[in-house]
Amino acid sequence: MTEARDLLQRLAHAYGIQTSYRGHDGHEHRVSDHTLTTVLAALGCSVEPDGTAGLEAALARRRLAPWLRVLPHTTVSHAGSGSSVQVHVPHGSAVTIEVLLETGETRPLEQLEDFTEPQDIDGELIGQATFRLPRDLPVGWHRLSALLEDGNEVEATLVVTPERLTTADPYRHQRGWGLSVQLYSARSSASWGLGDFGDLAALAVQTAAHGGDYVLSNPLHATAPEPPVISSPYSPSTRRFTNPMYLRIEDLAEYAALDPRARREVDGLAAARQADNATAGSLDRNATTAAKLTALRRLHQVTPAPERARAYRDYREQEGQGLEDFALWCALRSAFDPTDPVWQDPEFTPGGRLAERYRRELAEDVDFHRWMQWLCDTQLATAQQAAREAGMRLGLMQDLAVGADRNNADAWMLQDQLVPSMSVGAPPDMYNQRGQDWSQSPWHPERLAETGYRAYRDMLRSVLRHAGGIRVDHILGLFRLWWIPVGQSPTEGAYVTYDHEAMIGILALEAERAGAVVVGEDLGTFEPWVQDYLARRGLLGTSILWFEQEDGRPRPPQDYRVQCLSSVNTHDLPPTAGYLAGTHLDLRERLDLVAGDPDTERDRAGAERRAFLQAVVEAGFLSADTAATLTSATPADPADPAVVADIVVALHRYLAQAPSLLHGIALVDAVGERRIQNQPGTQQHEYPNWEIPLADAAGRAVLIDNLDAVPGFARLLDAVHHELNSGAASDRQPDHGMPTP
Fold first, then answer.
1. pLDDT of residue 543
2. Bridge partners (DSSP) listed for residue 575
3. In CA terms, which of 67, 133, 134, 357 is 20 to 30 Å from 37?
């Protein structure tokens, strides 16, 4: 390795950029020098990869950077750890440090005997002093204050986080299970063509009737304020606020207060959209969004009752400037095309002269979008209350997307904390062999710390407010994220690390305060210690049946992790019936997403399915004849849906032997659906991602009003509930379709 390359790699490591990674193929892959210099530039360090002197100077600046600050921007500590903080002042100067607790109390810090050689910074000697944090500091958001010898005072953020999140502990005594659903796809006769918060509450009550503890929905984050909207719930405009498309219009107090003429108009909009509820074709988000926005504008004109006006004011005060800026962005986005040059004007940013002018001129529209967020908050609260009153221990589990779309609300509101020249994604893996680009700007690690992680904290608080749990999509991104220079291939990226003690610690703190379980989706390419760390901090991981293999054979469920949510599939895989039929292989081949030979991939997948079915047969949950019926099926002569349903139940009973604290059932599996909700690596013109409504094995639309009448729904839920509550049985009998006791 040349001297310049060595210096470049050292500089990259100093900025938290990993210069290589171990891929799914088990091999080490080196990141190109071009990618390293591009990512460094995005982090504020522009260098020439072959300029030795410049690289050495950049390394020196990086090493001295902490010495330029009296206090670290943010200090994150575990409760009871008694950790320390380094303070930098002119050499020989006195400094006093104290903690300002969020309760208003003050605690002095003790200076330790820990001499460190002072550093010459631009001709001035700067010394370092170390102060111990008391072990008995309470968890919470505090401030560090440094009183300098010259009388100046410097403050910084101190976050004391729980050593361990305790919210999942009750499930060690009695494991829990729940249903996962793509809410927009799960409609009722009252839906406006897409599932809504009323449907979510109804689904929770139905699941609770079978003993379920939670309903996990897709991310409910807000998207564009008016059509056209992005279909993917994992590419929102912001993660902090909610999509009004999910509002149940008829449940709003303002609907009841409409005059007869306005009521007829709203009811007409509803009837037009409800006509689509019985169809199994692609969902029409734009039509539903347009209809609901029209109805909501009518409702916004209703004078609220005094108690609702007070509740709205309280909500505004609680959400603060973040809500105000999001509502302003919505109004601006409705008034200006996304390609309008005005978006590039520095005065068009939050707090800018031009933006503030429009805040006044568009005040009514700003209030409309602000008001809709309050309505979302109230209906989510109602749904969570219904779930808990129905007997669920957890209730709603919210899904947190990895990030927000690069050109939307978060990019505008938080542009000083995001990196617009980079896009988040993933390197190639077995299921996405060309890698993935999710078109989302990553957090800037240092800007997060400089701002005390406030935006991250506020987002978590909003998502957790009415949830008993949170699933963090790609939780590995709180440790490191795959950054792709915008315009480059996903294969030309690099991993950038984050302060995981801060990211995980703050997540644990906010979840503990909300009483919520945290489930991290820890699948994909990751470093081995990550899962152990998550378990030690009290967070659950994720196990998917098809991924649990060892030396090419299924891992026995008894060997799965305890601190985990286990399920047969995930939203990025086809429903189990489709997986058994190989529908994903047909689709990937048709879309040219298979990097190798398609026949080889089919042979591999076929062997995998046979191995899992054999394991289920050997465990006593499936007869050999039933398994053979499936393995002998062909596209021309597919297996009978009743046989497939038997196998789906058997797979879930088999998985229920895992000691995992939580188990999951996908609603699509409970009704026999075969179609894939999302095919990673594709665009809408290639496949209708996130636009597939819930349907049964025959392709007929399924409404949640009638779920208990759907063959297999109650059977699958009751089977899992029985297995989780019956303990280990010595003699397992195959389920041939009879009701589970």
1. 97
2. none
3. 67
Report the range of poorest mean pLDDT among 295-304, 632-641, 714-723.
Answer: 632-641
Give the pTM. 0.95
Q: What is the pairing mode between strands 564-567 and 662-666? A: parallel
Q: Got the DSSP string for 414-468?
A: TTTTB-TTEEEEE---SS-TT-EE--BPPB-HHHHHHTTTHHHHHHHHHHHTT-S
Range 301-304, long-range pairs (CB < 8 A, 24+ positions): 302/254, 302/257, 302/258, 304/253, 304/254
Q: What is the DSSP letter of 549?
A: E
Cβ neighbours of residue 294 closer than 8 Å, sequence gap 6 or more: 269
Secondary-structure percent of the chain, ordered helix, strand, coil, rounded to 5:
40, 15, 40
Angle at alpha carbon of residue 268, lines to 263 and 271, rounded to 5°: 125
- Mapped onto helix, strand or coil, the DSSP state of residue 554 is strand
Q: Of 545, 567, 546, 575, which Cα lies nearest the Cα of 676?
A: 575
Helices 529-536 and 500-514: angle between axes, nearest 10 degrees: 30
The angle at the Cα of 408, spanning 405 to 413, to the nearest 5 degrees, equals 115
The model's pLDDT over 543-586, given as tens digits with 9 standing for 90+, comes to 999 999 998 899 999 999 999 999 999 998 899 999 999 888 88
Mode of pairing for the β-strands spanning 517-520 and 469-472: parallel
- Measured over the CA atoms of residue 46, residue 52, residue 58 and residue 63, the dihedral's sign is positive
Please report the pLDDT score of residue 698 as a whole number.
93
Q: pLDDT (tens digit, 9 = 90+) per residue, 335-356?
A: 999 999 999 999 999 999 999 9
Residue 432 backbone zone (phi > 0: left; psi -120 to 50: alpha; other: beta): beta
435-464 pLDDT tens trace: 889 999 999 999 999 999 999 999 999 999
